[in-house]
Amino acid sequence: MKFFIDTADLDDIREAASWGILSGVTTNPSLYAKTGGKLADFEDHMVEICHICEGLPVSAESTAETTEGMIAEAEHLASLAPNIVVKLPVTEQSLPAIHHLAQEGIRVNMTLVFSATQALLGARAGARYISPFVGRFDDIGDEGLDHLAEMVTAVHNFRYGYWDEEGGPEIITASVRTPHHVTQAALLGADIATVPFGALKKCVHHPLTDRGLELFAADWAKVTGEAK
Ligand code: E4P
Question: What pTM did the predictor assign?
Fold first, then answer.
């Protein structure tokens, strides 16, 4: 499974990129708002992310609501950098836009996906990526990972004719909150998990690793004569 980072924070993206584990970046309007960025700086900000993560897919979300508006905005966003992926929500308006954009070779990450039928329709229309939101199910007392399992199986059962040579459409496990989400996404066969930097850092740590480090340090102090 590949790791994307789910943030628009440039420092976090730089640091995660330095770990050598990043395969892409996802952003959304809320994540950009969190950086304090303004509309006038939005495109430069996305281009900067694309430079930091050269060659890796960087999702920038369209806020248009009509099919025509989504196509125009997607074409514009895609022209900003070769590695831009356009995020569109799953709606009746977006499906024709996704279909049109796929034929132009523009990659769409279909977002706000909460059912297998939505995922299947997006794949058929030509979405390059499909993003089920696991954590938001959990937020309402549902089991996000059960829904993810359905979507992974349903989507991976078929070939769609678009993005075959790139191994698409790929499932991006989104709305990830915990290392458990990450592990289960991998075990369920999701292609990608997009993880906020805080949750990614939690994935590095384990209490037994910390305990082991303390023990080694204490024993090494005996060797060096620094033990108290
Ligand atoms: C990423 O593509 C999604 O926009 C993001 O993971 C949503 O996460 P949230 O549910 O924590 O806002």
Answer: 0.96
